[in-house]
Amino acid sequence: MTERIEGHGGELALAALRAHGVREMFTLSGGHVFPLYDAAHKNDFPIYDVRHEQSAVFAAEAVAKLQRRPGLAVLTAGPGVTNGISGMTSAFFNASPVLVLGGRAPAFRWGSGSLQEMDHLPLVAPVTKHAETVFSTDDIPRAVGAALTAALTPHRGPAFLDFPLETVFSVAEVELPAVAGVDPVVPDPDEVGRAALLIAAAQRPVIIAGSDVYAGDAVAALREAAEALQVPVFTNGMGRGSLPPEHPLSFAKARRAALSGADVVVVVGTPLDFRLSFGDFGDAKVVHIVDAPSQRAAHVQPAAAPAGDLRLILSALADHSGDRADHSDWIADLRTAEDAAKARDAKEMAAETDPIRPARIYGELRRVLARDAITIGDGGDFVSYAGRYLEPAQPGTWLDPGPYGCLGTGMGYAMGARVSHPDRQICVLMGDGAAGFSLMDVESLVRQKLPVVIVVGNNGIWGLEKHPMRAMYGYDVAADLQPELRYDTVVSALGGAGETVAKAADLGPALQRAFDSGVPYLVNVLTDPTDAYPRSSNLA
């Protein structure tokens, strides 16, 4: 039965948002969107405001990622929307169902030079799944529903609507449309069968599971398939934690041995991009399993490429009834490599050197982080170490910028994570370069009583650029920051707390104080600027 409602554009939008499961709004104040605030205020709909619009979008994306439901950002016209474009683009690359509602200069004066008058759609259309200007007040519920359905339909992603001033301020009486469900994408059974035969017959298969496994609620199906076929599993992005570290098929450190020795590489729910050698695994056959046909790689030709609901595909793999090769020797070989790498990492994480090596920070964090802690990476070099040394124990506990690599996600992600999980540890791992993008939004966290712990790896350089540039040219430029800058005093000035740590022995107590504080707390760790994360170029 449909519901008939009357109200201004903000009230109509809010009714449609609530019907689709949206529970909060992230925003930076702007007059073009006052009716949305009015509706939220009158209906006890939580509003969280920030100091830069990108943080509003990143906060909405964190909600979308962690809770697997729509996140909402509301941005005022013109610069409000353009400031949010990096957040929308990150959500696009991360397949995050974020809805951005923008203000817009009045349509009846269009072309006359109203405040912040610009056409947003040509800018946002390339990085959204749905972009529309809603010119009629009574069309707002329909438009909100269509945008959210697009955002939630695999392959998921952001959607954008903007409302001319007179549209959102005017009043209308409408019927609230019924919520349209999103039907699962049914995979081609022949393609799934081809993949199952390849995996079952392989002598040395490997699974790499990515963010869409979590986003598509396919974690249980992944475990079922891995256990049924006895295939070792590596993860990236929000796929991390899909198998707990103690699971006999869970691997993290032996990736090089696995990919160099595998005869079949099964990539599930993540693109064949620079993080995975662009899908080139030597002589190994590639099975690429994606949640929608649009995600099939165009630059490689996989041996099989099932596309559709990942739960259906992985469950079908688990149910494969044909012959299966024995993988016990292969798993044992990888376990030997894994254990050797863990032993090396343990030594690095216990290093007593001063200046502090980044590995030691993660050794100490592993002692204080709970199994359900949300860890957030915002940085380049420093966060690369996080990916190596931290092993999420549960799915849905790891947030990083994803393949777009946008810095500045940290405080927005922290806000969205704290709103999503009020009772968990929230820990942001931030390079000192990344701190320059969003640290002012600590004030937003303080003001709205959203405590998080921020650990800054402070080496005084852009580490991801300085070392490679020096290796290429013998010199570097535009790669230095102020050494030993007191980011902790910035946080204290904004109402939080913090301290600087210069000695490895002081790390553990400082981190414990941070997690016990109950306020936004920054641990500013002075790290060795000569310690560079080993990597090959990802620019190609």
From TrEMBL:
Keyword Transmembrane recorded: no
Alphabetical list of NCBIfam families matching this protein: PRK05858.1 (NF004516)
EC number: 2.2.1.6
EC class name: transferase
Cofactors that this protein relies on: thiamine diphosphate
Transferase listed as a keyword: yes
Pfam families on file: TPP_enzyme_C (PF02775), TPP_enzyme_M (PF00205), TPP_enzyme_N (PF02776)
GO term, biological process aspect, one: isoleucine biosynthetic process
Gene3D superfamilies: 3.40.50.970, TPP-binding domain
Descriptive protein name: Acetolactate synthase
Entries under InterPro entries matching the protein: DHS-like_NAD/FAD-binding_dom, THDP-binding, Thiamin_PyroP_enz_cen_dom, Thiamin_PyroP_enz_TPP-bd_dom, TPP_enz, TPP_enzyme_TPP-bd
Keywords: Thiamine pyrophosphate, Transferase
Cellular component terms per the entry's GO annotation: acetolactate synthase complex
Residue stretches making up the Thiamine pyrophosphate enzyme TPP-binding domain: 378-525
Gene Ontology MF term list: acetolactate synthase activity; flavin adenine dinucleotide binding; magnesium ion binding; thiamine pyrophosphate binding
Family recorded in the similarity comment: Belongs to the TPP enzyme family.
Sequence ranges assigned to domain Thiamine pyrophosphate enzyme central in this UniProt record: 194-317
All residue ranges annotated as the Thiamine pyrophosphate enzyme N-terminal TPP-binding domain in the record: 9-121
